[in-house]
Every structure is written in C-alpha cells, then in structure tokens.
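Hi all, long-time lurker, first post. I run a small reading group and we've been trying to get comfortable going from sequence to structure in the token notation. Rather than ask abstract questions, I figured I'd post a concrete chain and ask someone more experienced to write out its structure so we can walk through it together at our next meeting. Sequence below, copied exactly:
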Amino acid sequence: MKRDSKQYRRILLKLSGEALSGPQGFGIDPTRAEDVAERIEEVRDLGVDVAIVIGAGNLWRGRGGLERGMDRATADYMGMLGTVMNALALMDAMERRGLVTRVQSAIEMHAVAEPYIRRRAIRHLEKGRVVILGGGTGNPYFSTDTAAALRAMEIGADVLIKATKVDGVYDSDPATNPNAVRFDYLTYMDAINRRLEVMDSTAISLCMDNNLPILVLNLWQRNDLRRALLGEKTGTLVTSKLPDQLPE
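-- Answer (accepted) --
Happy to help. Here is the structure in token form:
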C-alpha cells in the first residue's frame, strides 16, 4: 500500500502535553515549543493542511485529583483549560517562526481564542493557517484522544497522526522490555483487543467507524513526520485491513 503526500493533504496532529514539557516532565518549556513548531513548519512547507489537538498532561493530570475524591467532571474541565494554555504557548512559538496560526477552543474564552466552529476551522486550513483545537470536546468524560478523532473527522483530515516519543506501537513497553516487538501495521480491532496503547478505545472505535487511518510515530526523530507525509514507511499505521489484505 503506497502512501504519499497527496494522500495526506490534510492531517490532524495529536500531541501530548508532555511534548511541551522540559526535562523535569512538567510545565511549559519554550525551547520544546520551538522544537515542535520547527517540525510543524516542515510539514507546512510540503503544502499539507495542519490541525493540532494537544493534551495537558504537563500541566494537570486528573487522575491525581480523582484519587483524592475530586469530582470527575471538575477534573476533566481543568484538563480542558490546560489544553488551551498549551495551545497558546504553541501558537506563540509557531507565529515567531512566521506560521500564521489560529487557536480555537471548545470552551468559549473570547479574550484568548476563537470558539470552535467547524466551518471556520476548515476555512482557516484552506487559507494555509495552522489551527490548534483546544478545550478537548468541550465535555467531561472524553479524552483528548477522542477529541482528536472527532475533530479529524469534522475537518475532513486524511489521517490522524499521534506524535509520541517512541517510533510506533509495540506489544509491550520498549522502555522496560528490550525484547518488545514493534508493529508496522495494525487493524483497529487488533489495537482494541490487544489493549495496545495506541489511543483510548473510544477514539479508536470512532476512527474505525469512519475508516480514518491512525499513524503513530516519533515526533522527536528528525524528519520522521515529514518522511511519513512523503510516503516513506515510518511508525505504525492502524487501518481497517493489513497490507496483504488490501487490493493491489
């Protein structure tokens, strides 16, 4: 199965909040934000439309609050607000590189971001702007993985790219298991049934129902993101069928 830049004319890039954190693992490191902006600039130089959903794990982890009795909805809303903070930091880094960027938020906060409006987001992309979609889905009980899958469908993305710190999906944690096996391809059902840490099951199911491919790759491996959009084999591709099941 051949992949090329024409197939990926528009992408939804899912970033974890940790992508912006420094060596300490929390907070926002301006240098890291600049590194992310550089990689996104490489993609825009290919003429690819880029929308971004970013998490907030560098600022707030709701699990800690839940373990201490916090209301789940409150914890989730706090996380959504954290994604907007990350979106603004990334917007600043990208605009300093000359990338015209818009932040839209599912939770309205007119002083710092546009409200999320699907048709407006698409129009920004058509004009060559990078769109950062903050605030999750705007509803508690949904992860930023699910927000990424939902927004990817809404804007007509060709692929959902989950950019991580590993070079694909493994059958176990490669950081603790030196014998972990990396997959080049997976089906949606394999990812769900094996409980692999691709995305949460709600996000994978949404992609499966709408036949949206998921590509998991290493954001920090130089040029991996760009190579993927040029059709080179990199990372793990999650689709409805494995390559040997696809027509020639």
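A couple of things your group might point at:
The chain has one domain: 10-245.
The first strand starts at residue 10 and ends at 15.
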